[in-house]
């Protein structure tokens, strides 16, 4: 990795942390400059605009999500075992976020009524995530571990709903039973889907 790439990576790591706290639209180049110790012009040398920075933050977060959630699941045998690893890795991802929680969840509320390229990128990421859940559930169907007539899109919707409910219960409500509740709900969904 070149020095420029290292600097860009460090900026994106810090920008992601700032965006998780104040939102993608709430983050300013000035805030980021203060957090990184760089000048505004130095930041603009790496990112031509705030929108370009927001898009790069989403890309950077997506890459981390794939590394921490998707890849471990794909290294697991097909079927329910893979589905469980995917779900557990997402819960771990959510639990590991410090201030602000999951950037994708926060940005979904922030950008839902804000048309433009940043919202479009987030929508693509969310659709890819739903498709990943449905695909992994489909392997459990093909392995005979979930019923043949399972509506994979509905299953993905319900798993996604569980992850959003967990984020809400854990972060907003500070429910000490949030982790137990989301695992029980997932087990119940699997039982209902078998």
TrEMBL record:
Keywords: DNA-binding, Transcription, Transcription regulation. Residues 5-65 form the HTH tetR-type domain. One of its GO terms (molecular function) is DNA binding. SUPFAM superfamilies: Homeodomain-like, Tetracyclin repressor-like, C-terminal domain. The keyword Transcription applies. InterPro entries: Homeodomain-like_sf (IPR009057), HTH_TetR (IPR001647), Tet_transcr_reg_TetR-rel_C_sf (IPR036271), TetR_C (IPR011075). Pfam families: TetR_C_13 (PF16925), TetR_N (PF00440). This is TetR/AcrR family transcriptional regulator. It comes from Aeromicrobium ginsengisoli. The lineage of its organism: Bacteria, Bacillati, Actinomycetota, Actinomycetes, Propionibacteriales.
């Amino acid at each position: 990795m070149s020095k420029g790439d290292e600097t860009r990576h460090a900026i994106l790591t810090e920008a992601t942390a700032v965006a998780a706290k104040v939102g993608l639209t709430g983050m300013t180049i000035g805030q980021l400059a203060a957090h990184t110790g760089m000048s505004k012009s130095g930041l603009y040398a790496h990112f031509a605009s705030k929108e370009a920075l927001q898009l790069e933050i989403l890309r950077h977060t997506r890459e981390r999500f794939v590394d921490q959630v998707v890849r471990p699941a794909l290294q697991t045998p097909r079927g329910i075992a893979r589905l469980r690893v995917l779900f557990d890795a997402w819960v771990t991802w959510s639990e590991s976020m410090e201030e602000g929680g999951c950037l994708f969840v926060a940005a979904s509320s922030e950008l839902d009524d804000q048309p433009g390229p940043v919202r479009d990128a987030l929508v693509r990421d969310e659709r890819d995530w739903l498709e990943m859940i449905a695909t992994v559930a489909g392997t459990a169907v093909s392995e005979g571990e979930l019923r043949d007539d399972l509506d994979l899109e509905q299953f993905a919707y319900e798993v996604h709903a569980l992850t959003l409910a967990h984020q809400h219960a854990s972060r907003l409500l500070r429910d000490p039973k949030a982790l137990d509740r989301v695992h029980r709900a997932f087990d119940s969904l699997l039982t209902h889907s078998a």
